[in-house]
Design a protein that fits this description.
The complex is a heterodimer of chains A (about 45) and B (about 220). Chain A is mostly helical. Chain A contains one helix and no strands. The N and C termini of chain A lie far apart (about 70 Å). Chain B is mainly alpha-helical. Helix content of chain B is about 80%, strand content about 0%. The radius of gyration of chain B is 19 Å and the shape is globular. The chains are: A mainly alpha (about 45), B mainly alpha (about 220).
Chain lengths: ~45, ~220
């Protein structure tokens, strides 16, 4: 019983952590892209 | 976006159904008891690992043939998810082994070839990080991804070709009297379908990330 609970707990924790990392990384890259796009517009305006 | 939501929602519903089914519907195995229930998500994870590496194999060939970086982005994303699910196979398997065999690990043909498969694709991911030029990394990893796939049929056939402790086939090539109760088979099929949808959801999310990363690299090169 304990082994089954442990195995499934690790499985779901790892999967949730992976999804969390994907979402976090995506939002940080999106922020960076937005910043660079604004920088490009600023340079063009100058 | 819509496709991601539909596939993701389907995955969540199917996973919920498979959890309920394996707890309340699947019968308890006579000799191993409740520990046998690890099997449903262990096999489903192994299936997704194989599927992910098969996708890497096909997309690597397409990348080498057509030189389009979108194929490389899909192959890289699939390799990462394949490593994730093979890691889960290597983690859940020993818990089952400890309950059933009273050992965590043995250098059995199926277990060893699975570990080698995992190491091959860990090498694939490391190679990506180590090569600076994206074109060169994509080309070398495509070759690596094609050669690495050779281990997948070896992992699958290991329990037929060598004498192993690992349980024999129960679904495909299992033959008559393979020992799987019809209710167990139904739960296994639901779990495999649920994990396939989970793989598709993760793949769509991961490919989006890869595309954003490529866009970021492009913008950085424009600003320099």
């Amino acid at each position: 019983m304990y082994y089954m609970v442990a195995a499934y707990s690790i499985l779901w924790l790892v999967l949730f952590f992976y999804v969390f990392l994907l979402i976090q990384k995506q939002s940080s890259i999106s922020r960076e892209i937005k910043g660079l796009q604004q920088e490009m517009i600023r340079r063009k305006l100058r | 976006m819509k496709a991601k939501v539909i596939v993701g929602a389907t995955a969540m519903v199917l996973i919920f159904i498979s959890i309920i089914a394996l707890v309340f519907y699947a019968p308890e195995e006579k000799t191993m008891g409740i520990i046998q229930k690890i099997f449903y998500f262990h096999v489903a994870s192994a299936w997704v690992g194989f599927l992910a590496f098969a996708v890497v194999f096909v997309l690597s060939i397409l990348f080498l043939a057509k030189k389009k970086f979108i194929y490389d982005a899909w192959a890289y994303s699939s390799a990462e998810i394949g490593v994730l699910f093979t890691s889960l196979v290597l983690v859940t398997g020993p818990f089952w082994a400890k309950g059933a065999w009273n050992i965590w690990w043995t250098w059995d043909a199926r277990l060893t070839t699975t570990l080698i498969l995992w190491l091959i694709y860990i090498g694939y991911l490391l190679l990506r990080q180590m090569i600076d030029s994206p074109e060169k990394a994509a080309r070398i990893c495509a070759v690596f991804g094609i050669i690495g796939f050779v281990d997948v049929p070896i992992v699958y056939g290991a329990i037929r070709w060598w004498r192993t402790m690992h349980p024999k086939y129960v679904v495909i090539m299992g033959g008559e009297n393979s020992g799987l109760h019809p209710k167990m088979l139904q739960v296994l099929i639901i779990s495999v379908i649920a994990f396939t949808f989970l793989y598709l959801t993760l793949l769509l999310l991961r490919v989006d990330l890869e595309k954003s990363r490529q866009q970021l690299d492009y913008l950085k090169s424009q600003l320099q």
